[in-house]
Amino acid sequence: MSLYTDAREVIAGGVNSPVRAFAGVGGEPVFFKNAKGARFQSEDGKEYIDYVGSWGPMILGHAHPDVIDTVVATARSGLSFGAPCVLETQIAEKICEMLPSADKVRMVSSGTEATMSAIRLARGHTGRDKIVKFEGCYHGHSDSLLIKAGSGALTLGVPSSPGVPAGLAEHTITLPFNDIDAVKSAFDEVGDQIACVIVEPIAGNMNMVPPVPGFHEALRDACTNAGALLIFDEVMTGFRVARGCAQSIFGITPDITTLGKVIGGGMPAAAYCGSADVMASIAPDGPVYQAGTLSGNPVAMAAGLKTLELIDDDAFWTALTAKTKHLVDGLAAAAADAGIPVAVECEGGMFGMVFTDQGPVRTYAQVAAADTERFKAFFHGMLNEGVYFAPSAFEAGFVSAAHSDDDLDQTIAAAAKVFAALVD
Ligand code: KE4
Fold it and tell me: Is the shortest distance between the CB of 260 and ligand 1 below 6 Å?
């Protein structure tokens, strides 16, 4: 028996989120028992340098003392009131301070809730039914968005999940990411029926795929001209790629932004936010309903607020960006030395690496055509070297402020060894 076989006895698939099951790389998932800084320890006593960071939240590194202290102190005053508390106001104020496109915020408990609520808000605010998403982008597992989705849905080969009624799926228009002409054609055809476009401003669920020049401007113009809302799903990129999120990099003002991961600091917290006008449509002020028992609970708010306070600093972003660049430059050089073609990307504390000689990667088709078998061998080779990357070729990686130069150089050295073995 293994921990995984024990888990499979009582947990569907042995995991509480499919991408953790190693289905994308083979073998059994590693079970962890504690984490600190850039590293965590498995149940069998092995230490790994972590580049998943709980899929993005751990931008400060695991168990940051200031975050832990505030969580413990807050928890001692009560875990959840189901009634307003000042911490909710304080984190909303912090988000609005750091994100100029946000006048008002609604806290929820997961990125899925945030995006599900954001598209309902867009549909209610515009009175329209159709939504536009992009192939390979993942926005959580709500029905309208599990159409040609990325992340675990792509990893497991079910980008369009069973269980989504055809009558609902027909309202989701899925276009190729970075295809400006496809966007224009869709809006020419049914623009007056489109409630919103939802997009990952930098796609991170089909590995890491940045936008091509003009893509976001085309989305912004198309939405503005058609009276549709532009939703930037920044659950992953939010406060991960830049202090002002991805929208500050591209100079685009979305109508709604969804956030998660970093804003919870490792606790269950996410949000959607936007202009006062748009957010006025949400209950109880407006008719669009959305609710949540644990929304805004004080412990998650305290973790998220402390995290945002600690990253709201230019020097933090300069250092984090340099660490990530050092890592991907090192990985690219190690791959080149071994004669293995890879395409790398990085922005702030987020990075990607695709096994392809067709870089730079700007489309889902390029990702789908990449060498996933070579990625699997690389993943397990790095795991054996004590380095933990995301167990899927269709995920991005994350560097934290806690990753030291030694951690990064140890990772690069391990990669050189693994790349060399891949060639043999
Ligand atoms: P959650 O419901 O998992 O909190 O957030 C959904 C979500 C929404 N939008 C974007 C851009 C996201 O990346 C996510 C979730 N990301 C995945 C990893 N790529 C979470 C990991 C998992 O599914 O276990």
Answer: yes
